[in-house]
């Protein structure tokens, strides 16, 4: 299986997963043109996409989903509350009903050759989820936009070969930064975003479970830096990562990440 982010952070999130037969996007917060260009960069074809699976309705995850769904003739998958929230906000534009597919959380569903499962996260959205995507014995997981690591998230992502793990902010940078108080509280809350320290704790658990690659993502432009996030995580998880041969890298904000094989 191949995994990469096409873009990661508040400017727009989209991840690409392919097993050679099926390819999907997880979220599409960037426009269709950028998706096509990003996939071209890695020798993949946007027209071959089998679907766009959506974690939650925030614009940085779905702003480009409707246009991309039409451009690439790929259905949009979301749970009911997220689908309703997207419809209310009219973010998807006009799509035929058969292109809007509702899944149940905690129940595996198929997208082509992938078995996908959504698990609850804790975030200020209608019904936010993370995903595991499995094919041929390989598993990728996405855990971003969560105030803390829910028990469900922990259980699901364990053992994934590759994990996109949120390392949103450095708490000190956030507290001292220029964000308004209310926004700081929102980010720090249990329904906000994961800080570097918690990402580091989570990385330790993932390495113990056999994860081979951890991609730190959804970094805040204001309240984090790639080197700060990486340093925080390596401080706690670096020795274990080295011992187990786990790679820990940072997903760049606006360009395609390294393509990870798992
Ligand atoms: Zn969000
Ligand atoms: Zn987000």
Describe the structure in brief.
This protein has 262 residues and is of the alpha/beta class. It has helices at 32-41, 59-62, 65-71, 80-88, 151-157, 171-176, 181-188, 196-209, 226-244, and strands at residues 2-7, 14-18, 23-26, 49-53, 76-79, 100-103, 109-111, 114-120, 129-135, 138-143, 162-166, 213-217, 247-250, 260-261.
Question: How is this structure best described in words?
Answer:
This protein has 262 residues and is an alpha/beta fold. The protein has one domain (2-261): Metallo-beta-lactamase, Chain A (4-Layer Sandwich). The protein has nine helices and 14 strands. The chain has a seven-stranded mixed β-sheet with strand order 6-5-4-3-2-1-14. Strands 7-8-9-10-11-12-13 form a seven-stranded mixed β-sheet. A hairpin with a 2-residue loop joins strand 9 and strand 10. Helix 8 runs parallel beside helix 9 (226-244). The model has no long low-confidence stretch (mean pLDDT 97). The structure holds zinc ion (ZN) (2 copies). One zinc ion binds at residues 56, 58, 123, 125, 145. One zinc ion is lined by residues 56, 58, 123, 125, 145.
């Amino acid at each position: 299986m191949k995994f990469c982010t096409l873009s990661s952070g508040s400017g727009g999130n989209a991840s690409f997963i392919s097993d050679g037969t099926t390819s999907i996007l997880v979220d599409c917060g960037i426009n269709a043109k950028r998706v096509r260009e990003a996939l071209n960069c890695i020798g993949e074809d946007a027209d071959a996409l089998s679907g766009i699976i959506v974690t939650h309705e925030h614009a940085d995850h779905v702003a480009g989903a409707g246009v991309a769904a039409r451009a690439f003739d790929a259905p949009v998958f979301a749970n009911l509350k997220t689908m309703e929230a997207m419809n209310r906000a009219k973010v998807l534009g006009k799509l035929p009903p058969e292109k809007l597919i509702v899944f149940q959380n905690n129940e595996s569903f198929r997208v082509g050759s992938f078995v996908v499962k959504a698990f609850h996260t804790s975030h200020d959205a209608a019904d936010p989820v993370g995903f595991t995507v499995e094919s041929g014995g390989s598993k990728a997981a996405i855990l971003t936009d969560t105030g803390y690591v829910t028990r469900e998230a922990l259980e699901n992502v364990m053992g994934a070969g590759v994990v996109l793990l949120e390392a949103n902010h450095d708490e000190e940078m956030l507290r001292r930064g220029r964000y308004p108080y209310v926004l700081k509280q929102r980010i720090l809350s249990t329904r906000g975003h994961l800080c570097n320290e918690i990402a580091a704790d989570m990385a330790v658990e993932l390495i113990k479970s056999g994860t081979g690659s951890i991609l730190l993502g959804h970094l805040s432009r204001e309240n984090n830096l790639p080197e700060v996030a990486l340093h925080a995580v390596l401080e706690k998880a670096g020795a274990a990562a080295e011992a187990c041969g786990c790679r820990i890298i940072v997903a760049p904000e606006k360009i395609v990440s390294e393509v990870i094989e798992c």
